[in-house]
Amino acid sequence: MDSTKAGPVNELPVGLDEASEEEYASQSKLLQEFTSISSIDKAWTFKSDNGIVSQAMFSISQPNLLANKKRKYMLSTSISKESNNNVNFQWAPFPVEMTGVSLIVPSPSGSKLLLIRNPENESPSQFEIWSPSQLEKEFQIPQSVHGSVYADGWFEGISWNSDESLIAYVAEEPSPCKPSFDYQGYKKGATKDKECSSWKGQGDWEEEWGECYAGKRQPALFVINLNSGKVHAVKGIVESLSVGQVVWAPPVEGTDQYLVFVGWSADPRKLGIKYCYNRPCALYAVKVPPYKSEAAESDLKSMEELTLVNLTQSISSAFFPRFSPDGKFLVFLSAKASVDSGAHSATDSLYRIDWPTDGKLCSSTKIMDVIPIVNCAEDGHLPGLYCSSRLSKPWLSDGCTMILSSYWHSCQVTLSVNVLSGKVLRISPADSDFSWDVLTLDGDNVIAVCSSPIDVPQIKYGCLEKASNSTGWRWLNVSSPIFRCSEKVMSLLSSHQFSIMQIPVQDVSDCLTKGAAKPFEAIFVSSKKNDAPDPLIVVLHGGPHSVSLSSFSKSLAFLSSIGYSLLIVNYRGSLGFGEEALQSLPGKVGSQDVNDVLTAIDHVIEKGLANPSKITVLGGSHGGFLTTHLIGQAPDKFVAAAARNPACNLSSMVGITDIPDWCYVEAYGSHGKSIFTEAPTAEHLTHFYNKSPISHISKVKAPTMFLLGAQDLRVPVSNGLQYARALKERGVETKVILFPHDIHGIERPQSDFESFLNIGVWFKKYCK
Fold it and tell me: Which InterPro entries match (predicted)?
């Protein structure tokens, strides 16, 4: 037979057979429809000349699977109030793609727009200043001045001064000189420039801030003069401080100008900072010269020995500084509860400093409570403050009321806070189980998005209505093209329902505090059909001190749409339920959290909402820790499992993670903070092992899939691989998908897509 005439052989991808390939094809088509739904990242409003109509811009992102990046674009609208108390949004006919744009920051007056394009490779950073009609100025800032401008949401800080001639910002400090070598050996007089006849050595290794900050050494403070284009590194900041979140202090005529920023000390070392609010930080003020003339150069030299003013010496954490519109006080958030206990995240508190009108600062400034740490709230009252972000302009027109988003049990809500009286109001509807997130303010009105596990996000417009003896909020629906999705997706979502369940604690006698004995919550998503329950996926968040919100998740909506009920458990230790409930978990991981999840599963089984023979479990990070614990401690409960970058063996993780202190605090409780060491004892390692899922591995039966990011610094890939290999060794069916370029979150569009596609196919295989 002539082999050259044979047809092409259809070779199946590794890990697929003909049956699973059909499932793969079917599910991938639906997942693409969910993946294509857009998200709003930020929004801004601008008052028009007539003061009646306002303009708004929405920064939107959408996964670009082919390019494996997020596609970012801008959509504009005009907002007008109608005589019938409704509001009308007139959207631009098409969005505009913002290729290569890292940051967008309007000026205080709204008459200018700053765009920053961060460099690729060794190109310069690009600053563009736009007017309403054209590009006005463009500056190229070479790597010898500074590296990329921080756009990470944490160190990130960009602030225009009041007359819009200067911009302060945070960027990567320029790389230090490295030793040079040529054919004669070491070359004296090293430079940063590349030369073809020599090569660079590595020089001394420097600490980084861990996960998400690989290749980043030191965030530093810079000011650019928009008239001259000259960039100045701000002097007087000690080398051991990493800086971020900079804002200009209000100008006081005849006095020096100050910048206020957050500083994190690198002494004794930098530990992972992403999702870790337990890193001590303070607000600092530094005096700066005018930066407006050549004479400023001499001013700079004379100020090099300036000492910083630490504005928050009496408190262990201070961040997200915001000045009141009149400049009379400074408000900031604190993660004091987290820093003091060692828990990576905990209940926030809000504080106020009166800003001196004479411009004379001192480090003994009195710090006043606005919202203290809430240990255990009465039912219906604020459970505590839990803010993951803040608006750049959060103020209503009274100058003392700020609007912010916070977690309230399993929901995100919108709050108004009077920072003088401390009065807090929940202004998003109290009877709503949806989650609400503030985007921006339009005068005294609020633009927000609300969503649920079965409802795509919708823009809402909140109107402050003042009556003779009270004020209230009325929320209007806004028609928008942003979240449009296919009819198939809408039909699938409309065939589902969700509720937030109160789950009683199983053994109250073990609880040391009132808050620890209160019920925890689980979000239950199911089909509206009344026949036999669908197979169940138990979904577990990471942290452990984070929370699964009742908001829309494309990946979870996809899983519910292919025939699963979801039980999304906010076990004790989650954010949003008060400090006592949160602090009940450290020292009890692998037992209390595991028992809470099993209690929640038994709760839905007893109610007839789940088939006990068709239960699967899915979690990432600490959720993966719980997933692998559950299949070992309750081996007959689960028919399949999937774990994303799971912490499976704390005794090996402690020596290689960017947060070794996490292992101590979660395994030992707050006492772990005081015994933390870079050289664990044999007793410590035994304790970590006994707290770990790997100590139960001999009992595991459930087929388990692992999704691992090879660049993960939080739970390095060896942790999941060790556990997966040990399962294989014991004959348990195991599947591993390794994403070579992903970090802890596995969030790159192609990786996220392939992860949840494989989870769907894996669970279908064992839930027939």
Answer: AARE_N (IPR045550), AB_hydrolase_fold (IPR029058), Pept_S9_AS (IPR002471), Peptidase_S9_cat (IPR001375)
CA distance 622 to 609: 26
- Residue 574 — φ and ψ, nearest 5°? -75, 155
Give dist(CA 284, CA 251) in Å, integer: 17
Question: Residue 436: helix, strand or coil by DSSP?
Answer: strand
Q: Is 64 helix (H, G, I), strand (E, B) or coil?
A: strand
Cβ atoms of 533 and 608 closer than 8 Å:
yes
Rounded-to-integer distance, Cα 552 and Cα 555, Å: 9
- How are beta strands 445-452 and 435-442 bridged, if at all? antiparallel
Q: pLDDT tens digits for 523-571?
A: 999 999 878 999 999 999 999 999 999 999 999 999 999 999 999 999 9
**All domains in the chain, ordered by first residue:** 103-150+154-178+206-293+303-375 (2.130.10.10), 496-649+692-766 (3.40.50.1820)
Between CA 740 and CA 157 the distance in angstroms is: 31
- Is the bond preceding 174 in cis, omega lying within 30 degrees of 0? no
Strand-pairing partners, residue 620, are 644
State the distance between the two ends of the chain, measured CA to CA, in whole angstroms.
43
What pLDDT digit, counting tens, does each position of 371-393 carry?
999 999 999 999 999 998 889 99
DSSP 8-state symbol, 266: -
**Token reading at 623:** 């959720």
- Within the chain, how many helices (H) and strands (E) appear? 15, 39
Residue the block writes with tokens 């905990």: 346
- Max Cα–Cα distance, the chain, nearest Å: 97
Q: What does the block give as tokens for 290? A: 């005018």
**Beta partners for residue 352, in sequence order:** 331, 368
Residues with catalytic roles: 621, 712, 744
Q: Collect all residues with Cβ–Cβ distance below 8 Å to 52 and sequence separation of at least 6.
A: 80, 81
Distances (CA, A) of 182 to 186, 194, 200, 201, 392: 7, 12, 9, 11, 51
Dist. CA 648–CA 694, nearest whole Å:
6
Decide the pairing of beta strands 704-709 and 640-644. Answer: parallel
Q: How far apart are CA 508 and CA 513, in angstroms?
A: 10
Q: Which residues contact 669 (CB under 8 A, 6 or more apart)?
A: 586, 587, 588
List beta partners, residue 182. Answer: 185
What pTM, to 2 d.p., does this model score? 0.94
